[in-house]
C-alpha cells in the first residue's frame, strides 16, 4: 500500500509524539535545516516512514522541499535532530515509496499574466 500524506484526520491516529509537523530540524552541528511540513504514514507498518522538510526561502518565497526517512531524526523536545549534514538532507532523493503520495505536492504550472494568450473579443450578435 502506498504511503499516505498525514492530514488532520490521520494525525489523531498517530502514536503520541509522532506528529512532528511544524518542528524545526537541526543538522548534526545544531544548525537549522528547515521545518517539518508534512508526514508520510505507512498504514501497513502503522508508522511514519518519511517526513517532508521545507527549507530556505524568504517571506514564503524560494523555499525547497525534501522528503527524507523519518529514521534519520530523533525528537529532542520541540526540535528534530539528525546526525546528517544539511548538505546530505538537501541532496536527498525522493524515495520511490513516497512518489504516489507526493503527486498532490507538485504545483500546477500556470503562466504569468503577461505570458497568457489574449482571448479574442466576444463576437457581436449580428441578428439585430
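Sequence proposed for the structure above (128 residues):
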Amino acid at each position: 500500500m502506498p504511503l499516505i500524506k498525514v492530514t488532520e484526520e490521520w494525525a489523531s491516529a498517530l502514536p503520541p509524539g509522532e506528529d512532528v509537523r511544524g518542528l524545526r530540524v537541526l543538522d548534526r552541528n545544531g544548525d537549522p535545516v528547515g521545518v517539518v511540513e508534512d508526514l508520510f504514514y505507512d498504514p501497513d507498518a502503522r508508522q511514519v516512514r518519511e517526513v517532508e522538510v521545507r527549507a530556505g526561502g524568504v517571506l514564503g518565497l524560494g523555499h525547497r522541499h525534501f522528503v527524507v526517512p523519518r529514521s534519520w531524526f530523533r525528537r529532542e523536545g520541540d526540535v528534530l535532530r539528525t546526525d546528517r549534514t544539511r548538505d546530505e538532507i538537501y541532496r536527498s532523493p525522493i524515495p520511490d515509496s513516497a512518489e504516489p503520495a507526493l503527486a498532490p505536492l507538485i504545483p500546477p504550472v500556470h503562466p504569468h499574466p503577461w505570458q497568457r494568450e489574449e482571448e479574442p473579443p466576444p463576437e457581436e450578435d449580428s441578428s439585430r
